[in-house]
Every structure is written in C-alpha cells, then in structure tokens.
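Illustration 12: Glucose-methanol-choline oxidoreductase C-terminal domain-containing protein.
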Amino acid sequence: MSDNPLSSVFIPTKDPPKQSLIETVGITDDGVFIEASSGFGQTGDSIHCHHGIMSAEIGQLSTIPPKDRSLEAVHKYVRNKNSLPKEVFHGGFILSKIDGPLSTGNLVLVDTDPNSNPIVTFNYFKHPQDLRRCVYGIKTIEKIISTNTFSNFTPKDGGYSMEKLLNMSVAANINLIPKHTDDSTSLEQFCRDTVVTIWHYHGGCHVGKVVDQQYKVIGASGLRVIDGSTLSRSPGTNPQATVMMMGRYMGVKILRERLGRAAGV
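Figure caption equivalent — predicted structure in token form:
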C-alpha cells in the first residue's frame, strides 16, 4: 500500500485571501506537485470543533504508527489546537506532494471479523528518493515566495524569513507526529514531521493479487472491488475522476454482459 505524502509551507498574506480548494500550480521534472490552498475558512473558535475525516482527530491518524493511534494521542492533538498561531486564519498554504511514492506500507487483518479495522502502515519517506523529492519541493516553494511578484501578497513589515515560515508551518501542522527542534533547519526533518495525508490511499487490492482483470475478488463469488485500492500508482493530483471513470466503465460492462442490448448503454 502507498499514500502520497504532502508537506506544506504556511504563507501569511497582507489581505484576507479568497477561499480556494487545493489547486495544482506546477509539476517539477521529478514529479513533485506544487499546489496551493488559500482562505482557511475557519475562525479561532471553529477550529476547535470536530470536522470528521477532515480533522486530525480522525483523518491524520495514518501518519503515525499503529501502536501510537490511541485516544490519548487524539486528545493531545485537540489540546494543541488551542495553541495554533493566529496567522493560520489569515493566509494560505503552498503544498509539496509526491507523485507515485516509492515508499510502501502494508495492511494486516487483525482477525476474521469483517467489522474489525485492519492495521494499516504507510511508511512515509521510507524510500530515500521520496524524502529527497520532498526536500526539493520545499526548496522550490522557497524560490517561489522569494520572488518580487510573490512579495506583493505578503505583509511588507512581517519579517517572514523562510526559517520563520517553516516554524509557523510546524506550529500550524495538523498531524499527530511529535515535532523536533531542528524542523526549520533540517528540511529532511521538516518533511518527516509535517507530512500529512490527503487521503489518496492506494494499492491495497492489487490487480492479479487480490482482484482479477475484471476486478472480481479472487476466491470470492459476487464481489468486486473498483476503487483507488486497485491502483498500483497514484499521481500527485486527486484520482477521483479516474476512480469514477473506472466505476462507470465496469458498471456499463457488467450491464452489457448481463442484459445485452436491453441494457441500453
């Protein structure tokens, strides 16, 4: 199994930016997607609320080892929300996301009960090339924010050096990973400590191992899996359209096999 690791640098702005979902603004030669998201869209009060999968309480548990995924870890994160810097509500993020990560993890069934959650480990940055690409992405972001054009959007009297921005980014980070004192001086450590998931998990049901070429679960009757878990590689951008296309393609194919021309598709 794999997941596309994402690290981000927080950018304070002199004017409140419009809220924008994540958009790809560039792709480096070695497959680092540079993306942007602006307008946090929350207040100092609402950030303390629970937001389902979008909250670190649930959504970022995959960034820590299974043995550390405890209720206490969640409670600690909730307490840390109170110390988020006020700037995170007045700016945006530039993101560095890895296309086709080489680091792989594993999925282990705890028992035969279908209601039991499996133990999933992604091993972010286990492969050195993934870490190198993340560092390259952060350095690319540094080049972007140091341009004269970009300076038009940031406070002129803020004194926001790259080191200060990295420190703010660590403080604003929403994962549950313990932070280190050298996060702003070691980009490798910054990548490891600030990695978050954007839920592009893939590779849990490989074609030829778990499902066949028709996405039928091997050894089971009347069951298919048609989603991102069948992908052996996921790009740095959202695979939703690809997964929807796969679902429609197989749905039409199944109807035609069962009903022929009467399927009407």
